[in-house]
């Protein structure tokens, strides 16, 4: 059953079809992939042609008799009532596979097998006894004395302890990203307990490539990293036909690569269902509209309404009606009265302007000052040094869209006067003299306020809620269970340098710059410490296609400030290891903002339930495993 079905989905000329060792023993698979039948074909060629097939309403759900030739020419044992619907036979997507439960069960099988959890591992004595009959893998067969060799996919005891300690001590996300997965680590029983569906979702898509990178050999790690990438891709918010087709090609390769590692008993129905998910995504669209997460959360909400456990249904209905009445009554109060329905959520800042300004006729406030969000915590004051003030002032000028035409005049004039100037010298000159150059010209009132620069006395806060993110300073968050001070910003924000890498850093201060003048311009900027973005020294590509950063390598140039609207949130996760001392490399996990769906042209961010799949990862995996025999 196992190797024959999975290798059928490979291309007809793929070398794995002729592999007589790792898949079906001494058999070459020549069957083409099964065809996707239409509803008409299933109804008339399969169901209606079976003699003695009872309807569901006649035979019930259990205890029905098997029709003629069951198990020989067909596997139908009853006729679904859905076939009586007039549109069912022409419906293209008649069934919806739940990605949430498939992903959870797949993850449970993987983690329990590699950790050799008693009673839950797919690698057991009965599995080893079947190896000799199914495939020709001597390393998994029982010895003459009935002993089973330790497989390459099983973690050692020290590796299991390292993995659980890593989960308990080192894995820390930002607020609202995931629950405390460290609570599931059972060091005494050497296993994971109480993993919820969303915990498995985060672990499978984000932590699995990091957790196993240094604990398993490469030929075991790569297919596991591939299945992690597949689930991350299938859960993307945006899908196109080319992406779905590539996922369909990749999943058969990934599952066959896993079958070369794990025993045949590993592949139950959940592992086989994964191969059908791209076809359903092509017909039904993104999984966010079809999986069970919103329904599970609704069930939890309804269960909390049960006050009379003797009659739970009536209690739910009664409380639900009261909730609806309360919700609609809220809208009859005056606008200034805060109610539950009108109050903004913790992350609901999309309509909340951070500052209000004095209006001047014929003068539009620059978009750079129209920041959304809200500051929180106890504010403090301090004086900026001369160097800090100059860099902050120049950074604001160079990132103001309304100043760009004037900036181009400065660029042209500087290059005309210094035709042989290098790019690095030009950037340094621009940062040091652009603000002073602007003071030689007459501009509108808001530009004059901006050119004069901000006050050197600034206020700074420990917390800011903006664009769906919650940012904390390092001093505020260093002793907490969650980290909200790790940030990322796109490269070339102010100087238009092509191919500049992204910058990763630590948020030190959340400051408000105030420009004196009639308008009273204010804006929030971040003061950050950056890590070296040089590939090979401060950054590197990891096995899952993302980036690692070296915490010991700091950015040599003094350029600490960014706008709050430019910052994205990330998490830095260390690699668990049991063989050597830990180094300073950390895997970068980008955070998707809560309650915000962002559409950005050309964006290739990798984030929780990301917008686009990583083309390079899938293509690289496909090439690797299509050429590996």
Shape: globular
Structural class designation: alpha+beta
Number of domains: 4
Number of helices: 19
Mean of pLDDT: 83
Radius of gyration: 30 Å
Poorly predicted segments: 493-499, 600-629
Strand content: 5-15%
Q: Give the beta-strand count.
A: 15
For the record, give the distance between the C-alpha atoms at the N and C termini, rounded to a whole number.
21 Å
Biggest beta sheet attributes: 10 strands, antiparallel
Helix content: 25-40%
Describe the structure in your own words.
With 629 residues, the protein is an alpha+beta fold. The protein has helices at residues 2-8, 39-47, 56-59, 99-114, 125-134, 157-169, 197-211, 218-234, 241-259, 269-273, 277-284, 293-303, 312-329, 386-398, 404-417, 423-438, 445-452, 474-477, 615-626; strands spanning 185-186, 191-192, 374-376, 380-383, 457-461, 463-466, 469-472, 486-489, 503-514, 522-530, 539-541, 547-550, 561-563, 568-573, 585-590. The protein folds into 4 domains: 39-90, no CATH class; 98-294, no CATH class; 308-344; 367-534 and 559-569, no CATH class. It has 19 helices and 15 strands. Strands 4, 5, 8, 9, 10, 11, 12, 13, 14 and 15 form a 10-stranded antiparallel sheet that branches. Helix 1 packs antiparallel against helix 9 (241-259), helix 8 packs antiparallel against helix 9 and helix 15 (404-417) packs across helix 16 (423-438). The chain is globular. It starts with a helix and ends with a helix. The model is unreliable at 493-499 and 600-629 (pLDDT under 50).
């Amino acid at each position: 059953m196992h190797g024959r079905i999975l290798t059928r989905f490979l291309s007809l000329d793929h070398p794995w079809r002729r592999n007589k060792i790792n898949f079906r023993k001494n058999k070459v698979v020549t069957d083409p992939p099964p065809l996707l039948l239409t509803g008409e074909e299933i109804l008339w060629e399969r169901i209606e042609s079976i003699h003695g097939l009872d309807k569901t309403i006649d035979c019930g759900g259990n205890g029905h008799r098997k029709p003629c030739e069951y198990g020989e020419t067909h596997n139908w044992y009853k006729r679904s009532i859905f076939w009586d619907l007039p549109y069912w036979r022409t419906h293209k997507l008649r069934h919806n596979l739940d990605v949430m439960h498939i992903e959870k069960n797949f993850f449970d099988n993987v983690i329990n097998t590699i950790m050799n959890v008693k009673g839950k591992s797919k690698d057991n004595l009965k599995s080893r006894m079947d190896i000799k009959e199914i495939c020709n893998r001597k390393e998994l067969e029982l010895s003459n004395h009935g002993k089973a060799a330790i497989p390459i996919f099983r973690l050692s005891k020290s590796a299991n302890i390292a993995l659980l300690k890593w989960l308990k001590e080192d894995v820390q996300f930002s607020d609202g990203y995931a629950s405390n997965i460290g609570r599931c680590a059972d060091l005494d029983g050497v296993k994971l307990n109480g993993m919820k569906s969303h915990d498995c979702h985060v672990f499978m898509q984000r932590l699995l490539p990091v957790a196993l990178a240094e604990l398993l050999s490469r030929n075991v790690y790569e297919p596991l990293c591939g299945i992690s990438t597949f689930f991350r891709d299938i859960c993307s918010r945006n899908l196109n036909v080319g992406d779905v087709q590539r996922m369909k090609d990749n999943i058969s390769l990934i599952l066959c690569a896993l079958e070369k590692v794990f025993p045949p008993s590993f592949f139950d129905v959940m592992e086989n269902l994964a191969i059908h998910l791209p076809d359903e995504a092509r017909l039904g669209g993104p999984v966010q509209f079809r999986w069970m997460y919103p329904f599970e959360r609704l069930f939890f909400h309804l269960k909390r309404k049960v006050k009379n456990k003797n009659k739970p249904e009536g209690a739910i209905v009664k409380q639900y009606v009261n909730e609806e009445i309360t919700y609609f009554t809220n809208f009859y109060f005056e606008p200034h009265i805060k109610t539950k329905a009108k109050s903004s959520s913790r992350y609901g800042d999309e309509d909340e302007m951070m500052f209000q300004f004095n209006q001047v006729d014929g003068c539009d406030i620059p978009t750079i000052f129209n920041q959304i969000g809200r500051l929180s915590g106890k504010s403090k004051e301090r004086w900026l040094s001369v160097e800090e003030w100059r860099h902050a002032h120049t950074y604001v000028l160079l990132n103001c869209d309304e100043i760009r035409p004037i900036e181009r005049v400065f660029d042209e004039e500087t290059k005309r006067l210094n035709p042989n100037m290098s790019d690095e010298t030009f950037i340094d000159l621009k940062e040091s003299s652009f603000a002073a150059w602007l003071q030689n010209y007459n501009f509108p009132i808001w530009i004059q306020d901006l050119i004069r620069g901000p006050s050197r006395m600034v206020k700074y806060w420990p917390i800011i809620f903006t664009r769906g993110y919650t940012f904390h300073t390092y001093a505020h968050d260093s002793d907490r269970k969650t980290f909200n001070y790790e940030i990322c910003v796109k490269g070339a924000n102010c100087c238009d340098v092509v191919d500049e890498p992204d910058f990763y850093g630590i948020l030190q201060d959340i400051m408000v710059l105030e420009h004196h003048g009639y308008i009273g311009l204010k804006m929030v900027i971040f003061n950050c410490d950056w890590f070296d973005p040089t590939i090979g020294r401060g950054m590197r590509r990891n096995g899952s296609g993302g980036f690692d950063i070296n915490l010991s390598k700091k950015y040599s140039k003094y350029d600490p400030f960014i706008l709050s609207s430019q910052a994205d949130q990330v998490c830095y996760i260390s690699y668990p290891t049991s063989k050597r001392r830990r180094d300073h490399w950390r895997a970068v996990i980008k955070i998707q903002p809560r309650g915000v769906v962002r559409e950005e042209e050309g964006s290739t961010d990798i984030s929780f339930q990301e917008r686009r799949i990583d083309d390079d990862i899938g293509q690289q995996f496909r090439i690797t495993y299509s050429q590996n025999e």
